[in-house]
TrEMBL record, chain B:
A biological process from GO: glutaminyl-tRNAGln biosynthesis via transamidation
Name of the protein in question: Aspartyl/glutamyl-tRNA(Asn/Gln) amidotransferase subunit C
Catalysed conversion reaction: L-glutamyl-tRNA(Gln) + L-glutamine + ATP + H2O = L-glutaminyl-tRNA(Gln) + L-glutamate + ADP + phosphate + H(+); L-aspartyl-tRNA(Asn) + L-glutamine + ATP + H2O = L-asparaginyl-tRNA(Asn) + L-glutamate + ADP + phosphate + 2 H(+)
Function: Allows the formation of correctly charged Asn-tRNA(Asn) or Gln-tRNA(Gln) through the transamidation of misacylated Asp-tRNA(Asn) or Glu-tRNA(Gln) in organisms which lack either or both of asparaginyl-tRNA or glutaminyl-tRNA synthetases. The reaction takes place in the presence of glutamine and ATP through an activated phospho-Asp-tRNA(Asn) or phospho-Glu-tRNA(Gln).
UniProt xrefs under PANTHER family: GLUTAMYL-TRNA(GLN) AMIDOTRANSFERASE SUBUNIT C, MITOCHONDRIAL (PTHR15004:SF0)
Similarity comment: Belongs to the GatC family.
HAMAP family with a match to the protein in the record: GatC
GN (gene name): gatC
Organism, as annotated: Oceanococcus atlanticus
């Protein structure tokens, strides 16, 4: 058995399991040992579920012995702590849910369990997925494995840090405004936000219900294809789940790149983009041209309004969703309440952190009488204009390419003074959520020792095309094979 | 658009968030900064544009009105801060 199991791809790990080079229990033990050795520093996990993981691994070994194993049987993974996991603490990185043990599994968790994955634990995140740096977590920020003084990104920062640090080959995440793609970019991973409705939202703590979507992190498009195939699919328990067949994403990787038209929106390369980051993305675009894709200059005229639109729609939906946390049925409850209103107000005031309270208040304000039309309704109309921009673009091109983030990972604490400076960094990612489009970030360069991500956006349900285009790039380049020192 | 401390107090009350008086001006400044950014929306011409509430062009599905699973009241109430005899307990509401 090799010491470098954490450097292998999911397919390689699965082959090793089938060849009996190691057992699923040994594989889980390898990753658990890495978590014990390094997570004190990285803080990628809120809860490590060692016993449950070894139970899962024993079941995987039995399936392997019985010949009933699938492509993901025995493969370790971590779940973002926003996914309900039956019998396991699910905190959403909030004091509000510090003691909450989920009574059932999220559909995505159940589907992955059914596929035989071994869950090692629950990953750190921004509180209720509200944040872009993981710094709003009640349990402290995750650190970037490439430079521990820097952010791992957010909100799925712990999931990204776990895969980038070699704690697991796969991690689930959720993406409401960039929460999979941005941390994937900042930690050198491939991260996918599928089409809205592609993966079930059942059992995911709701943040903004018209934007939330489950996704995943891996080291390559090939690994992601395996994971998405197991996560995706119609779920009668989610009223907005898409009734669309799940293709064989692994087979779709073979789609040729030649003849594909890729749009380069000029608005994504305007002021505010770090020059070195932009140069890395342009080099990737040149690579695509050499691989046979046609690059087309396009315009998305309303995309500049994505951030203001998002910061009306998302808080409005959040203020409504988070009304369920009342200190009565579950979650934090204040001591000795004077009356029912005091119970609600102090339980929520104590249970939620500052960023969550800011967003609830913004949401309550933009939905309130006298402001609804000017803010919420206007934002919904601009959302329509943004979606129409993409629809027009996709009449002419197959994919859109641009940067994932304006800069590489910044230092912890650097953007804590004014929430708006951090919000503006979501500029390239939020539009895909507003339009419900699938989007992926993949590593395409390094700037001063830090990874840079490129973003590919596709029409609805074109996950296979996104993964194939990324796979073609990854066959020709080795940015996705770069590893942080801790993961070597 | 900017908010003052009194308006923040009112919004916090509507949202059932207990905020210390000392925090009100800090929130007022932060929320005003967010609203100023959001005010860019006013520049968009949205005359005749349908508001978009949802990204998928789909019809709301209906399901059969049938029992598919039974809620496990005891398991759910085990999560409650205070429950007794099948009821969730809260401070007295009616004198």
């Amino acid at each position: 058995m090799t010491n470098a199991l954490h450097t292998l791809s999911v397919s390689e790990l699965a082959q090793g399991l089938r060849d009996k080079s190691y057992s699923a229990v040994e594989l889980a033990e390898h990753f658990l040992a890495r978590i014990k050795a390094h997570d004190g520093h990285i803080n990628a996990l809120i809860t490590c579920t060692e016993n449950e993981a070894l139970d899962d691994a024993r079941r995987a070994d039995a399936a392997l012995a019985a010949g009933t194993a699938g492509a993901l049987t025995g493969i370790p993974l971590v779940h973002k702590d926003i996914f309900l996991t039956e019998g396991v603490r699910t905190t959403c990185a909030s004091r509000m849910l510090d003691n909450f043990v989920a009574p059932f599994d999220a559909t995505v968790v159940a589907k992955l369990k059914q596929a035989g994955v071994v869950s090692l634990g629950k990953a750190n995140m921004d509180e209720f997925a509200m944040g872009s740096s993981n710094e709003t977590s009640y349990y402290g920020a995750s650190r970037n494995p490439w430079d521990a003084e820097r952010i791992a990104g957010g909100s799925s920062g712990g999931s990204a840090a776990a895969v980038a640090a070699g704690f697991a080959p796969l991690a689930t995440g959720t993406d409401t405004g960039g929460s999979v793609r941005q941390p994937a970019a900042l930690t050198g991973l491939t991260g996918l936000k599928p089409t809205y409705g592609r993966c079930s939202r059942w059992g995911i703590v709701a943040f903004a219900s018209s934007l939330d979507q489950a996704g995943g992190f891996a080291r390559s498009a090939e690994d992601l294809a395996l994971m998405l195939g197991a996560m995706a699919g119609f779920d009668p328990k989610d009223s907005t789940s898409a009734q669309q067949d799940v293709p064989d994403y692994l087979a779709e990787l073979a789609q040729p790149l030649a003849g594909i038209k890729i749009g380069r929106p000029r608005e994504f390369f305007a002021a505010g983009l770090d020059a070195a980051t932009g140069a890395a993305v342009d080099a990737a675009i040149e690579q695509y041209r050499q691989l046979g894709a046609e690059i087309v200059d396009i315009s998305l005229p309303n995309v500049g309004l994505s951030v203001p639109t998002y910061y009306v729609v998302a808080p409005a939906e959040a203020s409504s969703n988070l009304a369920r946390f009342d200190g009565v049925r579950y979650g934090h409850r204040a001591d000795s309440p004077a009356d029912l209103k005091d119970l609600y107000s102090r339980s929520r005031g104590e249970g939620f952190g500052r960023e969550v309270q800011r967003r609830i208040m913004i949401g309550a304000y933009v939905l309130s009488h006298g402001y609804y039309d000017a803010y919420y309704l206007q934002a919904q109309k601009v959302r329509q204009l943004i979606a129409a921009d993409f629809e027009r673009a996709f009449a002419d091109v197959d994919l859109i390419i641009g940067p994932t983030t304006p800069t590489p990972a910044y230092k912890l604490g650097e953007k804590n003074n004014d929430p708006v400076t951090m919000y503006l960094d979501d500029i390239y990612t939020v539009s895909a959520n507003l339009a419900g489009l699938p989007a992926l970030s993949a590593p395409c360069g390094m700037v001063e020792g830090l990874p840079v991500g490129m973003q590919l956006i596709g029409p609805q349900f074109a996950e296979g095309r996104l993964l194939a285009a990324t796979h073609a790039y990854q066959q020709a380049t080795d940015w996705h094979l770069q590893r942080a020192e801790v993961a070597q | 658009m900017s908010l003052d401390a009194d308006q923040v107090r009112r919004v916090a009350e509507l949202a059932r968030l207990a905020v210390d008086d000392a925090e009100l001006p800090v929130y007022a400044q932060e929320l005003s900064s967010i609203l100023n950014m959001v005010d860019q929306l006013q520049s968009a011409n949205t005359e005749g544009v349908e508001p978009m509430a949802h990204p998928l062009n789909m019809v709301q599905r209906l399901r059969a009105d049938a029992v598919t699973e039974k809620p496990d009241r005891e398991a759910f109430q085990a999560l409650a801060p205070q429950a007794e005899g099948g009821h969730y307990l809260v401070p007295r509401v009616i004198e």
